[in-house]
Amino acid sequence: MEFKSLNLQETLKEIFGQLTLKHGVNRAMWLGGELIQKLPRIEKKNWLSIFSLEEHEYGTFEWEEARDRQWAWEQAMSITKMTSLKVPGKEVSFSFIPIFHCESKDLLGLFLIENSGLDLFEVQGFLSSCARHLGFCQELAQSKAISYVDDLTSLFNHRYLPKILAQEIDRCQRKDQKFSLLFLDMDYFKKVNDGHGHLMGSRLLMEVAQILKRTVRSYDPLFRYGGDEFLILLVDSDKSTGEKVAERIRRSIEAHEFVFEGTKIKLTASIGLSVFPDNAKTAKELIQLADQAMYYGKNKSRNIVYIAS
Hints:
Elements: H1 8-23, E1 28-32, H2 33-38, H3 47-51, E2 57-59, H4 66-76, E3 83-86, E4 93-100, E5 107-114, H5 120-129, H6 131-147, E6 156-157, H7 161-175, E7 179-186, H8 189-196, H9 198-215, E8 222-226, E9 229-234, H10 239-255, E10 258-260, E11 263-265, E12 269-276, H11 283-300, E13 305-307
Parallel strand pairs: 6-8, 12-13
Antiparallel strand pairs: 1-2, 1-5, 3-4, 4-5, 7-9, 7-12, 8-9, 10-11
Helix pairs in contact: 8-9, 9-10
């Protein structure tokens, strides 16, 4: 099969089209290998939220019940070869077909297809023939991802923020959901750089990044916006939840003892919070409002969480 694009989503659309036209597949879904590797570390109660992030899954399934989707997750965690399974309590069976990189043999991902009397070996043969191109798509995506990562903290950088915000706004509009955006700025951080040097400042920012990773969920995107500013996107979070998480972050930073070459230092942070769609309906406005709320808190007292109105 010849493909027109190295974009994963476009490639999968082409594959799904061929599965339908030439192989009689009614429903199909792709689960990426990177996501599958994360499954054992994700609590079951959070599976549904993770599974709805569309950068990780592509397909034509419309799950009738949440438990069906959870069942699919459970099976995906242990698939290493083509397997056919029946959904408990239903007259429906599915087949999982793993796809491996042609050279490294790493798992690229899983195709989940509805098995309605299909010639599974024919379907598997077709999907396996797509493995090389899927590998190219993955390698391109990985090279792009590197340009989206901050060298110092290993968090996402500001270049990736518009893409993620656009995806999340689109998802929340379609599903009538909310998300919170936190804008965090370290208090008096210039004094750290001026008094102890930029090397110490860089080390402390790396520690702040680790605190953020420990304080939020694994699927909440973290960004180093620039300098000592960070942005946190809290998926499926309203104002109340966003405020609780922001307070947890603020307290964690305040309680942490930063140490560099024997020097101990205490840091605090000011955090602004805005909520989609309550406060704004565009990415630019959300960032501006969270930024303004943060600065209002800084001018008021610092070491505070302030919510946009």
